[in-house]
Every structure is written in C-alpha cells, then in structure tokens.
Amino acid sequence: MALAQDQPWLKDRRYTEGIGIRAGDLELHPGVAAEFGYDSNFFRRDEEDSAGSDDIGPVGSLRLRITPSFSLSTLSQQRLEVTPDAPPPDVEFRGGISATYEEFFPVSGTERGRDRLSEQRNVGGLLDANLTILPRRPWSAILDASVGRTIASSDLGISNQSFRRIHAEAGAELVWTPGGGLFDWRLGYRFLGTFFEVDEYEGLTNLHHVIRTRGRWRFLPRTALIYDASLGFVDYPNPTSQLSSHPLRAQLGINGLVTSSFGLLAMAGWGASFYTPENDAAVVRDFDSVIGQLELKWFLTPNPGTDPAAATLALSSLSAGFTRDFQDSFLASYYERNRGYLKLTYFFGGRFLLIADGGVAAHVYPGIPETHSFLDPADPWTDVRIDASLFGEYRIGDSLGINSTLRYGNNISSTALVPLVAEGGVAPNHLGWQQFEAYLGVRWFM
User: Fold this and answer.
1) SS3 call for 310
2) pLDDT of amino acid 154
3) Which of 5, 21, 322, 417 could bridge to 10 as Cys pair (CB 3.0-4.6 Å)?
4) pLDDT of 311 higher than 80
5) Cβ distance 39 to 61 under 8 Å?
6) Percent of the chain with pLDDT over 70
7) Nearest 5°: CA angle at 264, between 327 and 349?
8) Which residues pair with residue 410 across a beta bridge?
9) Contact partners, residue 261, CB within 8 Å, separation at least 6
10) Which of 208-212, 352-356, 382-386 shows the lowest mean pLDDT across its residues?
11) Is the Cβ–Cβ distance between 229 and 283 less than 8 Å?
C-alpha cells in the first residue's frame, strides 16, 4: 500500500531494492535515504484564506525527510534462473518495513501558520507482507496485509493541520489457472480501514469491505480479454455527514501487445455508489455512470515476452491514458474523476533512472444538499486538478544513489464552502490551491 509513503522508491519495490544479501533461501534488502528541500504549501491553502479568522493561508517551509527501510523475500527469479528447470517453490513471501521522519522549517506565511507547521513534525511508515501459496500451479492462493501511518494534508485544502491517519489493509485471493495458463480466474476479499487520529475528523474514519472477482483469457499469444467486478460495503462508524454505501463496479476489456514495442489496455464498464440515507428526509446523490480506462504504452526497449503485464524495470516505457471513476468525498457524498495522463519511465545503462508523471483531471462534485451536517448548501461544481512530478536518480555503484524530486499540484476551483454556525459569520473555505515541492536526496540500498 503506497498511501503511507510518497517517495517513488517506496511506491514500487523495483526502485527500492538492489542486488540484496542472500541468507539461505531468503533475500535481505536494507536501505536508508535522506532528503532536504522546499515545500511551498504543505496545508494546500488558498491565498485568500490567510485573511480568515481561523485560517492560515499558504505556508512555505524547508523540509527534511529521513527514511530507513528493510525488506526480505524468498529468492527472486533472477537468482532462481541458475536452475531454470527446477519446479516452482511451494510458497513465495515478501515483506517490508519503512519509516519516514519529517521535520519542517517554516520560511514564509503568517505567524500563526508557521507555528502550526512547526508542530507537524512526525513519523509516518509502512509495514506490509505478501504470501503466495503454490505459485504458478493450477490452484494457488495469495494472502497480504499492511498497516501504514500517513502524515499529509487534505488534498481539498479543507484543513490547516495534518490529516494524520492509519491505513490498515488485508486481503485473500484464490487463483485458478487451468491448463497452460491461457486462462486465469480470481476470487477474493479485501478489507480497507482508514482511521483518523485527530478528533475533529473522527467522522471520516471508515471501514471498507470488498468482494472482487477478476480474470483474463489469453485468446492470442500477445492479447488477453480481461474482466474485473467488485462489490463494496463502506461504513462510517461515527459519521458527521458521510453516508455508508455499497459501491459496485464491473468492467470488461482487452490488454495486449500490438507489437513488441506497443501495448494497449482498454476497459469499460459501469459503476454505481448506492449510498444509504440516514433518514427519510436525507437527500442522497449517487454516482451511476460509465467507468473505464484507456492506455497506450510504448516500450522504448521492445518487450521480449508475450505478456504486457510482465514488463520489468529494464523495459523503459512511455504511457498515455485516460481514466474515469468515482470515489467517496470528504465534502459531498462522492466525486467523479476524469483524468488524462502521461508517464515516462526510463532506466539507462543500469545507472540512471528517470520517472516523469503528469495529468489533468476534472473532479465533478454533485453539490452540498440542504441536509448536510456542517456545510451550507452548494450547487454542483467542477474542479480542475493538475499534477506533475519528476524523479531522477543516478546510481553510483550498485548500492548508492543521488536523486532529485520535483512535484507540482494545482486545484483550480472557484468554489468556496461556508461552514454552518449557530451565530455570527465564518469566512468561506476556498478550495483552490497550488503547491510546489523540490528535494535533493541521497539513498543507500542493497
């Protein structure tokens, strides 16, 4: 689960690990990283909010992050290739732990804002494990679990303090792959829990249970028909305005290599939110529409295999795509997300890694009904979300890297929401914000 960490090498283990240390039938991968840079707007506040009675506006700061990490796994395919004819192992295991200490040194903004940001120093982290039983057999099972702590702000600019929260996740999946592997079917269950630490946001704590089935049928050597369906059960134990729901998603599509250099993913289906009203007078606005994804990927080095999903870090690629989906919202019941994106991953000579990622999305909100618990009613609105990131790392030898990260975010919105109060007036909360981050770092890994 990547939510607890935003460093690229912690989101994807292909970037995290080096050659590792072999200990019998296990591989050990220790590492540590340090970054120092600038964050222009950690709280993601609008400039106009600095004039509010209880708001702080944008606060710029220098930011220090120190991240030790450790992972272990059963022997990788690279080491097992020494005996390629050997039968697959009975189990495959992978687990890891990481922690990130963050320190802030405010350099701009209101005095109240600088004081509030100085108080945000904290530690986030992630612990995860994955176990595959009877891998690459006709019947296999996958068990996984993780728990992480996130130290981050709201991406809606609705808070002038950290959205500290615990993410817990666990799942089990049964996999059936008959014959030569041209067909596979999966049935699984997943639990996702988000627990907010600050009492003010206790109402956003939620428990999410998902039953999911998915699979693929490879009807051509390079092309597969894929399907994915899920039914969720979302519950807010102590809701203030959030509604429980039963989100349903069903998609059918195709994933294939058009040539050894071009891959295509196309999925389309339907999604519906099925929110449960608190009472007969409550106004419920549901999502009920088309969802899907379209992506074209160009492998800068041709994919030697027949499986487009089997690309490794050595296969540099450029992707362009579009996604449409819906998610629960901290403000309205949900928001509809339509995002176009570009992503470049380039690994040159085993030394230089470049990851460029960016997108533009329309976030469509259904409005705030009159029955909302703490916000004045509002008509439906649309925000435009821009995100861009650039990560580059030069590896000195096999276990030392010097890296740089640039990140930009902008929520373009003309909407300002007004909290409900019994008496007097409260300054509106503007949803627009922009943020720039820049870091230099060094990383040691095995």
Assistant:
1) helix
2) 79
3) 5
4) no
5) yes
6) 85
7) 100
8) 386, 434
9) 298, 299, 302, 303
10) 352-356
11) no
Distance CA 132, CA 90 (A): 8
Gyration radius of the chain's alpha carbons: 23
The percent helix, strand, coil of the chain (3-state, each to 5) is 10, 55, 35
331 phi, psi to nearest 5 deg: -105, -75
Amino acid at the residue 412: I
The predicted-structure confidence for 60-82, as pLDDT tens digits, reads as follows 999 999 999 999 998 876 656 55
> What's at 211, amino acid-wise?
I
Can you tell me the distance from the alpha carbon of 41 to that of 274, in angstroms, rounded to the nearest whole number? 36
Phi, psi of 27 (to 5 degrees): -115, 135
What CA–CA distance (Å, rounded) separates 348 from 301? 11
**Hey, CA dihedral for 70, 73, 79, 81, is it positive or negative?**
negative
**Token output for 423:** 């008496």
Q: How far apart are alpha carbons 269 and 249 in whole angstroms?
A: 7
**Distances, alpha carbon 373 to alpha carbons 107, 282, 415, in Å:** 37, 11, 19
The 3-state DSSP class for residue 164 equals coil
Instruction: Retrieve residue 330's tokens.
Output: 């901290």
Please tell me the distance from the alpha carbon of residue 393 to that of residue 33, in angstroms, as a whole number.
12
State the amino acid at position 341 in one-letter form.
Answer: Y
Helix (H, G, I), strand (E, B) or coil at 233: strand
- CB of 407 closer than 8 Å to CB of 386: no
Tokens of 3: 């939510």
Residue 7: band (very low, low, confident or very high) from pLDDT cuts 50, 70, 90:
low
| Whole-number average pLDDT of the chain | 86
Segment 86-113, tens digit of pLDDT: 777 889 999 999 999 999 999 998 888 8
Q: What is the pLDDT of residues 376-435, one digit of tens each?
A: 778 899 999 999 999 999 989 888 999 999 999 999 999 888 776 544 455 677 889 999
DSSP state, residue 115: H
CB-based contact 160:116 (threshold 8 Å): yes
pTM above 0.85, yes or no: yes
Residue 244 clears pLDDT 50, i.e. is over it: yes
Q: What tokens were used for 27?
A: 């591989």
